[in-house]
Fold this protein.
Amino acid sequence: MKDKVINIAANHDDYTAEIKENLINIFKKYGYGYFDEFNKHGELNVTIGGDGAFLRAVRESNFSGIPFVGINTGTLGFFPEITPEDLESFVVNYVEGNYTINNVNLIESEIVSHGSSKKTYAINDIILKRKDMKTIHMNVYIASNHLEKISGDGLIISSPLGSSAYNKSAGGSLVYPSLKTLQITPLSPIISNAYRCLDCSIIVPPEFEISIYPERREDYHIALLADGQLIEYDEIEHIHFRTSKKVIKRLSTGTFNYWNVIKDKFL
């Protein structure tokens, strides 16, 4: 049986530090200890901050199977559902078992380079650009069918949860979080007599794999950003994207309403 210990990963600003201290004191009243950041013996991961704090904690835990919940002290905050005013009721609900655990599917990317492959995962999105930020040319395949050659600044592969992030700013569609889809959104696609490609996003069902073949030249160095984390590659042959069977667990006390969040944050 796991110890009654909570992992707490928090931003470092003064307000967040105050909320963290309050949370620790409330959990102590109910017999819980805590770890700073992540420990595999914790029974719950609590992040304090915004979406960035949540995503960072998930990645630094190596996509742990321990459930995650976020307390929002940031600005946008789609992942953290608990407000600082509701700390006591959140802890009471947690102690009494008044919560649900939902699986969140990850984006899985398999990068093939020099004949070997490496997998990288993301919750929100994976972005492909050239390292030197020049125009990139990429052939896009869906379920092994060639769709188009995208030419432009790059592209975004986003999850439903990530559809409200960079994807939305780039003109992509909002996708309800419970849907298991991937979305391809081009970044500033070039549309001319020389280059013809779609200027809209494409939503792909989970059973279809997306494959990207970047144009291969000596000066092509690809920058891949997984949830904002930069990974650089030379001589990428191709990349496969799929809805992963790997998941993280997200704890909810039932207070999260997607449509209210969309209205509050964007309208």
